[in-house]
Every structure is written in structure tokens, then in C-alpha cells.
Amino acid sequence: MPSGRTHDRITLYALPVVAGVAFWQTRSGNITLLVAGGFLFGGLMFGPDLDIYSLQFQRWGFLRWIWLPYQKSLRHRSFLSHGPIIGTMLRVVYLGSILAILAVVGAKLANIAFSWGDLGRSLFLYSGEVFALFLGFELGAMSHSLSDWGGSAYKRFQKQGVQGLLPSGKIKKRKVKSRSRRATGKR
Ligand SMILES: [Zn+2]
After folding, report:
1. Boundaries of domain holding 169
2. What is the C-alpha to C-alpha distance for residues 90 and 76, in angstroms, rounded to an integer?
3. CA geometry: angle at 101 spanning 95 and 107, to 5°?
4. Nearest to 42 by CA among 113, 112, 133
5. Which of 34, 41, 43 is nearest to 130 (CA)?
6. How far, in Å, is the centroid of ligand 1 from the Cα of 156?
7. 112 torsion bin: left (phi>0), alpha (psi -120 to 50), beta (else)
8. Cα of 48 to ligand 1 centre, how many Å?
């Protein structure tokens, strides 16, 4: 698994590529900015490693408590944090619910009317922008998960050669492990 610094470097190196492709595909400065901004945010502080005490987690500063329940409920590198789409989706819903609670409480305290209808309407009105931002988050998160998986595949390759890259190699290793565990248990 690459370190947080390596992940950061991958995110920064990939940024011009992501921005370039976004602009090439949309010809829109706004959409490109949203995709690129989402990609940076997703890669640097809104990524899969929020499920552990990581650089991404530390970057939330005094707001990092937000992610403590998330960490408590997810195993590190679980499918729910590192999986494609589902990881970002869950984080968006998670952060969105906390922001919604804060908005409702804040509006009450400040005596401002808060309307779910208005919020829904503007999300719908700007659905293109919302999608661009989500795409950016997802690309940032995926650059992370892909380098995690790539990194551990490379480590297996160094240890076991090509065998380590085959799915059967992994299963065999697991079987051997549980057998030896049982054997030591008997003794
Ligand atoms: Zn990770």
C-alpha cells in the first residue's frame, strides 16, 4: 500500500491529465474547474483512507471528529470505503447528512427559514455541475484505490513472482495459513 505522501503525489501528477480531459470533453471552464476541484478534494481529503487515521483524515483539522463514527463503523480498506462508486456515494451521503443537520440547526438558531424543497430544486437545476463534482470526487478516490491495489499486487509479485498475481496464489496462501494456525492450536 503506498504511503499518504505517495498518494498525494499521484493525485497532483494526475491533476493536469484529469483537467485536460475534462476540458477536452466539455469545452466548459466551469465544469472543468468542478471536476478538477473535486478530484483534488477527493484525492487529498475526501478519499477512501478516511476509514483510518490518515493524512486525508488529519487534513480535516478541527473538523476531523466528523469522520470518527465513519472510521468506527468501517474496517480499513473495506469495500464500502475503497470500492468504486459505493465508496464516494457513501461518503457524500455521510457528509451530506451531517451538513444537512448543521444547516437545519444553524437556520433555527439564526431564525432563517430552511426549505428542503429549495435545496432539492437547486440541486436539480445544477445537476450537471453536481454530477461534475461527484465525478471529480470519484476519480480522486479511484486514483487512491487503484494505487492501493496496484501497490499490494506489486508487493505480492516481489515476494512470490507471477504466482502472487494469480487469484489462486492468494487462496492457496490463505488455506496454508489457516491450516498452520489449526496445527499450532493443537500443540
Ligand atoms: Zn487506502
Report:
1. 4-184
2. 15
3. 130
4. 133
5. 34
6. 17
7. beta
8. 6
Distance 126 CA to ligand 1 centre (A): 31
pLDDT tens-digit map of 109-157: 999 888 889 999 999 999 999 999 999 999 999 998 888 888 888 888 8
List helix spans (H) across the chain.
Answer: 4-26, 29-44, 55-58, 68-73, 79-82, 86-110, 116-125, 127-160, 167-186
Cell of 186: 493443537
Give the environment of ion ligand 1: residues with CB less than 5 A. Answer: 48-49, 148
What separation, in Å, do the N-terminal and C-terminal C-alpha atoms of the chain show?
35
Total domains in the fold of the chain: 1
What is the distance in A from the centroid of ligand 1 to the CA of 49? 5
DSSP, res 187:
-
Q: What is the pTM of this model?
A: 0.80
CA dihedral (103, 32, 56, 99) in degrees, to 10, reads 10
Ligand 1 mean position to 149 CA, how many Å? 9
Q: How far is the CA of 41 from the centre of ligand 1 (A)?
A: 15
pLDDT in tens, 53-89: 999 999 999 999 999 999 999 998 899 999 999 999 9
In angstroms, what is the span from residue 96 Cα to ligand 1's centroid? Answer: 22
